[in-house]
Please model this.
Amino acid sequence: MSFQKWKQLKWFRAALRPYRKGKLQYPYEMLFRYYMEIDRNLPFRACGHFEYFSMLKFDGIYEDAIKNLRSLLPENMLDNFNAAIAAYEGLGEGPESEQIVAAFEECDDYAAEHAAELAGILQRYFADGKARNAF
Model:
């Protein structure tokens, strides 16, 4: 990652600390977690919807996280998110990797292309001081 790109992510680097400490408010905590899984321009590998949903299930917060995200996502991203949920729930137990790639490729690509919209929502959240207690 270039220095310029890393510099542009100043808000992201600042938000990581309170996120890791569990100090972001819902639904923004869930939005930040989703953003980290879909934005391929971050300094680490974004895994996509399958990994995101699987980890939510593992953490026991799947339904709550879905509800939180649906309250914040812009309409175009909400449609894509709902399609990803349908794909995830339609996979069944222990899907093969080819099934996972086929089911999520389009949803992951769309979300990655529109990740800047989520970054904008998160940046406004932090700029408005709503997360002030988290820092």
